[in-house]
Design brief:
The complex is a heterodimer of chains A (about 210) and B (about 250). Chain A has about 210 residues and is an alpha/beta fold. Chain A contains 6 helices and 13 strands. Chain A has one domain: Class I glutamine amidotransferase (GATase) domain (Rossmann fold). Chain B has a single domain, classed as Alpha-Beta Barrel (TIM Barrel). Chain B is built from 10 helices and 11 strands. The chains are: A alpha/beta (about 210), B alpha/beta (about 250).
């Protein structure tokens, strides 16, 4: 069997080289690209994201990444968003008082966690649904988070006959969404590419599902 | 709170090589930071910190290679500090594979450096590194020093930390110059006062010598513990420290 191809969306955000190496280690053939054809043809698209929500959206739009993500999802082609790359999948993000429109794939806002200590930085546990594909075979492991904002409510109603989205939760002085698996669109608030062996296994699970 | 306490080994790197003694057996090359990083990650390190103690600009470029090679092989967070003077330095280190950047004396000389980095990359990439000494010259009794503790500034450590957080520092690395090298334990009072004024995570550094020192630092308010020589000299392993913390009731990965 030939290796699955994954494009890491190269739009100027995030530690894309570590992400690429982790995906390679997890078994994918990896390319850094923003080229429309390459992005559309890959088996999977990995969307990193580091920094402010508004800056990430601006950078994404700058390379028409918003359209590329939308087109892939419309065609049922898998996309995995990481950290702010997950946050931008929601309707909007509120950060330092700035309200920014997101990609709107999911309803709701990404807002600051009501926690005593921020950023939420370090290795935390997650509560994944039993039928999760991403967390298949990974139980009682911790993943590396570094963020201050998150989606704290899941607002997408079940849309029969589509399978219900699988939502994974974590807690930092209150619940927030740690991962979502919704048809072709998956996302994690934590960094699987920085989460040691547990993170590599999650990436392997995603690659196997492509 | 369910986030785990982090245990962080720190490696001094100059011209692409680990400096200060590292006494590991079974190392092909005890001076290779990439190999040491890999071993610490296997032992359960939750993050790694490289302190670039390089003196020249030429040497600096080898640090970027070290960061790149490490990030390609070791899939845990990597902080790089030392010699960071501009947001372009940060951009290069992040592009090389660093996840967080330590800033110290350059931010003391020019505090707006913190704002610049935070605006461009977010607060979560900035670790404010503080070398702190006890002194009657400032109200809190804790003064900020530079040059590895040899020069006192006029900055009160509490005021400077509060200002840096306001400007966008995402974490404090609190190193006690008095405790550093003594192996008598962390400066618990210092950790306590820094915790009391900080909404961002606090990393305790300086003075670790025995296992019981680590839970003391956590009880004093630290979110993470950093040590160098006790790990490099194989006096303690990462695993032993994590077991000790776990027995004390801390959440550990």
């Amino acid at each position: 069997m030939t290796a699955k191809t994954v494009v890491v969306l190269d739009y100027g955000s995030g530690n894309i080289h570590s992400a690429a190496k982790a995906l390679e280690r997890a078994g994918a053939r990896v390319e850094l690209s923003r080229d429309r054809t390459r992005v559309m043809e890959a088996d999977g698209l990995f969307v990193p994201g580091v920094g402010a929500f508004s800056a990430v959206m601006e950078q994404l739009r700058g390379v028409r990444g918003d359209e590329l993500i939308d087109r892939r999802l419309a065609g049922g082609r898998p996309v995995l968003g990481i950290c702010v790359g997950m946050q931008v999948m929601f309707d909007r993000g509120v950060e330092r008082g700035i309200d920014t429109e997101g990609l709107g794939e999911w309803p709701g806002a990404v807002e600051q966690l009501p926690a005593e200590i921020l950023p939420h930085m370090g290795w935390n546990v997650v509560d994944a649904p039993s039928d999760s594909v991403l967390f298949d075979g990974i139980r009682d492991e911790r993943f590396y988070f570094v963020h201050s904002n998150a989606a704290q409510q899941w607002l997408l109603p079940p849309q029969s006959p589509l399978p219900a989205p699988r939502v994974t939760w974590a807690d930092h002085d209150g619940p927030f969404i740690a991962a979502v698996e919704n048809g072709p669109l998956s996302a994690t608030q934590f960094h699987p590419e920085k989460s040691g062996e547990a993170g590599l296994r999650l990436l392997r699970n995603w690659i196997a599902s492509l | 709170m369910s986030v785990a306490i982090r245990v962080i080994p720190c490696l001094d790197v100059a011209a692409g090589r680990v400096v200060k003694g590292v006494n590991f057996e079974n190392l092909r090359d005890a001076g290779d930071p990439v190999e040491l990083a890999r071993i610490y990650a296997e032992q359960g390190a939750d993050e790694l910190t490289f302190l670039d103690v390089t003196a020249t600009v030429d040497d600096r470029s080898t640090t970027y290679d070290v960061v790149r090679k490490t990030a390609e092989q070791v899939f845990i967070p990597l902080t790089v500090g030392g010699g960071v003077r501009s947001s372009d330095d940060v951009a290069r280190l992040l592009a090389s594979g660093a996840d967080k950047i330590g800033v110290n004396s350059a931010a003391i000389a020019r505090p707006t450096l913190i704002d610049e980095i935070a605006d461009r990359f977010g607060a979560q990439v900035i670790v404010l590194s503080l070398d702190i000494k006890r002194s009657d010259s400032v109200p809190s009794g804790f003064v900020v020093t530079t040059h590895g503790g040899r020069r006192e500034t006029t900055l009160d450590a509490l005021d400077w930390a509060a200002e840096a957080i306001r400007r966008g520092a995402g974490e404090l690395l609190v190193n006690s110059i008095d405790a550093d090298g003594t192996k008598d334990g962390f400066d618990l009072e210092l950790i306590g006062v820094m915790r009391s004024i900080s909404r961002v995570p606090v990393i305790a550094s300086g003075g670790a010598g025995r296992l019981e020192h680590f839970p003391e630092a956590i009880r004093a308010g630290a979110d993470a513990v950093l040590a160098a020589s006790v790990f490099h000299n194989r006096e303690l392993t990462i695993g032993q420290v994590k077991d000790e913390l776990r027995q004390d009731g801390a959440l550990i990965r």
